[in-house]
Amino acid sequence: MVVYFKGEESACINHRDLLIEDIGKVYCTSPEIAHQVEKTKLFRFPKGQNGKEVFSILNLLEEIKKIDKELEVVNLGEMDFIVYYKEGSQESKGVQKLKIVFVCLVAFFGAAISIMAYNNDVGLERLFGKVYEWMTGMEQKGPGILELSYSIGLAVGIIVFFNHAARKRLSDDPTPFEVQMRMYERDVNDTFIIGAGRKQQEHDNEQ
What is the rounded distance in angstroms from the CA atom of residue 49 to the CA atom of residue 46? Predict the structure, then answer.
């Protein structure tokens, strides 16, 4: 009988016992065998501490073979994977909201300072003044239509580029933030896996 397994490159759990179903999907023509494989324990994280562990697909194959030596396992996913363990958070919703507000304020004022510093470096105010004088023949006194148009265009451009307006997406495409976060996550996982392989810290046997 054939058991198909498709594992993810990384998984995050908040319970100590790592089961096969936590790291991927199992398919078998026998529902009983599939359920038994899904509930098979691979590892138990130490109590009272968060952490991460790198596992090899060999560990999973060995545990499945313990169920029935005649089972044929076909791996359709990753050869190595990382499991992050974090105990359930007890933070209140109020604390979580305060963290969100803090991050939003930091991002807002950080972006505002960066834009103002850039505008000051390139002399945008003087440039707008010269353009206004060239178009009207008069010297500009204070902010005008050019500054207003620039401000509105900058805000609209940011919304369009980041593909978000409040909680709504402008399209089904992933946002630049999501793309960069996925790339960063993949790079971090690859680094952990390569490092664990060189240090021979992969879990090839049950601990």
Answer: 7
